[in-house]
Predict the structure.
Amino acid sequence: MRSGPGRRSPRGGPRDRAPGSVHGPTHPDRPRRRADQLHTASPFWYHAVSAGRVDGHPGAGERRVVDGLRAAGVKVVPTVNETLKPGVLASILSSPTRRATHVRALLEVARSGDYDGLDLDYESIAATGDAAYERVRAGYAELVTQLCRGLRAMDKQCVVTVSPKTASTGRIWDYTAIGRAADRMRLMAYDYHWKGGKPGPLSTPQWYDEILRVATAEVPAAKLEVGLPAYGWDWPADGSSRAKHVTWKEAEALRVAKGTPYSLDPESRTPHFGYQEGDQRREVWYQDARGVAEHLPALRKYGVTHTALWALNFEDPDLWPVLAKG
């Protein structure tokens, strides 16, 4: 999720809680450097533009990249997101004919690229209004069911990325139907505080406890992947404008440049600091290896052993041994 309060599986043994998947916009070559702790790479390669059309971004399906990842033992399950105008996705999901057309277009992507599967990351349905909510929710669940059936018939993986669901958020996602159909359901467990809101942590142990309590009640823990943030946001302290994105490296470099001591927030267990920029006071909240180590017990509590990373090359290098320990 890239807006609003709220992305792979390890090979077993002591690495059971490593981020077996990486999800996002970083260069697809990079997962090969962490192949001992990864099993899946999901580069952002495709986007849906209509019921019958799914376009590739520049470089999508580059044979050198796919072959290199496979040689390193990393499965290639590219992400398909959508750039549809408001209401268009709802109209596709609500029509059996248009929905079937879209499933065929997605299966053609999986077939043409000789991939190991697809990751479906359609987020605009989360903002569906009350009038269309139930119809769109049911339509998306049916789309996922049909797509996963088709991918499985091709011996390919079906992964679905969703927003976290709590008692008051995420109602558009039918976790039970998605969890039944998909091989993996990825929870975007980040942006608890987002770039368009007030400053604060991107995730907290308490929030993880709530979203995993809901998710594991509807989906087997073995099918879940928890997406961990490897980045942060740099806000005006008063929240008067949108935050700037920072990677872990950028956040730490800024903290050092400003001469600010390292501090782990006692409640969220995430690093943060403030600094002065001209007349403006700013706050930076981000995540690092120490913070993730404080959050992993929430996953263990619910039996979730698979994690995802948003996104590769944003992260604190010390995160990898932390994840290897679980």
User: Anything to note?
Assistant: The first helix runs from residue 63 to 71. Confidence is low (pLDDT under 50) at residues 1-19. The longest strand covers residues 40-50. Residues 13-231+287-325 form a domain with the TIM Barrel fold (CATH 3.20.20.80).
